[in-house]
Design goal:
224 residues, alpha/beta, five-stranded mixed β-sheet, 5 strands, 12% strand
Amino acid sequence: MSMLTPPGMGGKYRVTGTAYPRMSRPRRRRKIVFALLGSVLALALLGYGALQLIDVFRGGDGDRRAAAAAKDCPTKSPAAPAQPAKAANPGPDASGAPAAALPQPGQITVNVYNATPRAGLAKAVGDELKKRGFTIGHVGNAPADFDKKVPGPGILLGSPRTDKAVYSVLGTQLTGVTQQTDTREGADVDLILGDSFKELNTKENADKALAVLANPAPAPFPKC
């Protein structure tokens, strides 16, 4: 028996040459290594998924909505180099909003008619409008089509070709009037006073309303 033969091994396990018999390594280590790698990969995927869920619940969508909203906000242009000061050019409005072209009260001819039972109402209103600069035409009782048939404060009656700005200027003098048209060809406008009319707006309030009409406020920009 060779000296390379381990004690107790004989027969077919006997080593007869000079080489020691090689025993194959068990494959269990490979399985353990693959199992460890698979576990690490699974844990990594679970961790990534958990981070995504946390991002959604903690405001990930809010950041995206804010970014989308920022697209609608105007971007600031680069600051231009300073220019020498120039003399101010007087404009219609310091805010830059264009002034509306409104007729002057003296360019509007108003016929004042009374459709109520109150005597002298048309004359009193006509005199006040004249003091405010309007041109007064006919003054008297309302035509039969309107007499005692106007429940509201009044009616502004004019031609279909009458400028809408004329109605707007007259509308600053009393609140709640309605607009109608007839077949007339002239530029005059009828003010038919109705049952619920009490008095004209104060001159102060009427002048403020005219100022707003003449210089409308610009549309506000969206907040960013």
